[in-house]
Amino acid sequence: MASLNLYSPAPHDLVWLDDPASALERDALPAWVSLPALRDTPLVVRRDGRRQGEIPVGLRGLTRAERFGTWIAPAAIRRLVTPMDLAAQRAWRVRPELAALPAIRALAAIADPLDAGGIRWGVTGSAGFTLACARNVLHAGSDLDLIVRADRPLPPGHLYLLGELQRTAPARVDIQVATPYGGFSLLERLRGGGRVLLKTDHGPRLCDDPWQPAPCRS
To answer: What is the pTM assigned to this prediction?
Structure first.
């Protein structure tokens, strides 16, 4: 688990609130949100730079329609887990009840090759949420969502390995690449010859090179 004193929450991180009622009291919450349940259920950090000094987060319910975005103060966080924490801890190995799900089978199959390839990666989406808490939001048709952190352009060997793992995994694998300027879909880059839609803190931008912000076009 990342130290809150040394780490600023990043998109896809999971955070737990010290006092959900106090942290979210400014918002008109949807009826499906249970404040008592949020003591044990994480929120997902998202991309949105409209409020300086606050952290954009998303609440999720039981269905895709149950999503709610808001902001919290950094002091409201009592615990933080990153996607990389879940990967490093091999969190799926202590949840045998999930082992038969295709997304978890895919995770177990590709974790060691990713590490051996020197790739900085983590588990996000429904799989990450499920592995981080007691709520299972995975089902037989769930994708496996991963994040790869890359401060510089990925070398050809990494691109080849990621592409092969996507192709051969026993579930659909959606890999997002996180650059210092935002995140993009690896599959989109491989299919499109380079140009991608970069998700930034200030909205999506079409980029020829996601590691160079100047060429980006809104």
So the answer is: 0.91
Residue 100's domain comprises 83-207
- Give catalytic residue positions: 143, 145
Residue 129: exposed, middle, or buried by beta-carbon count in 10 A (0-12, 13-18, 19+)?
buried
**Number of domain units in the chain:** 2
Left, alpha or beta for 83 (phi > 0: left; psi -120 to 50: alpha)? alpha
Evaluate if residue 10 carries a pLDDT over 60: yes
d(CA 173, CA 103): 8
Share of the chain above pLDDT 70, in %: 93
Query: Are 110 and 183 within one domain?
Result: yes
Give Dmax over CA atoms of the chain in angstroms.
48
Residue 131 shares a structural domain with residue 197: yes
